[in-house]
Amino acid sequence: MSKPAISSTPDSVSLEYVRQALQKYSDNPSAFLALNSGNSYFTSPTGDGVIAFRKAGRYLVQMGGAFAPEANCAELLARFVEFAKSQRSKVVAVHVQPADRDHYLEVGFTVNQVGGSYAIDLAGYTLRGSKFMQLRNKISRAHRAGITVVEADQADWAEQMAALDQTWLHSKGKHAKPLEFLIGEYGGPMQPHRRLFVGLLDGNLAGYISYSPVYGSRPGWLHDLSRRLPDGPPGIMEAINKTAIETFQMEGAAWLHFGFTPFTGLDPQLEVASRSGWFRWLVNQLGIWGGSVYPAKSQLAYKRKWDPITLPEYIAFSDGASLRGFLSVFRAANAL
Asked: Taking the complete model, does pTM exceed 0.70, yes or no?
């Protein structure tokens, strides 16, 4: 992996350099989101690795940890904080993994759990048994309604996917906006690394799920961007995902990840000593009342159907937990 000849010029880093850094160093199920269009990148001249971020107001919102060799992570984070200060900005990081916490604490960040991500071990995974009876029935119902599922080339379905995106978005209300940053995308130069499975009804697109690669200690695929016809048959997404699971299992993939859901999987025992007490209270309240901010409960209900394990995820603030910093995450995600 050749290092770009830059130090702190965020927009000079090639996507291929970032992708190779993710493949080599990331241990984060959402790491591939760092390659989304609209992100900027920071590197250091003293070591390998990269940080992905977006600017939102007075904050640089970092995606995941420092994708770098273990020995370089804290230094890269420290240099990024200094870069932010030179831009008169602060840093807030999301999708921070348990293995990253010490790096942030070493640099002086305040770290709090903010949600969880969910995953299934594909080795021997099956939908047999009573606990999956309702899920199997829903999938069967979709197939009886005429849904067929195939893996597809995204370019062949680009127009129908764009139309479905608009239909799906309009169903969410006139003020709904498409989320970014915290979810993936399709198309562009990184599309060859993704997988697309589509659900068809009479040959037309009724739903799709895009899967992104996951590297690190739980390698496999991330159940990423997904859309369905609002008035389509029940069970479309479940039928698509079942086909994808079977395909990944035949290929020997180890894990399927369902990604991050904020305000869920919270556990006081998973907090660190330097946590913010008031921020922990806020996140707990959002877990109860925050449906208007983020559809966490509906996301979690779908993920729990597959009986996943829960993996904690954290948020880290360079200058102490703040409401403005927290809101900047949602601004970067186009949720506000």
From this structure: yes
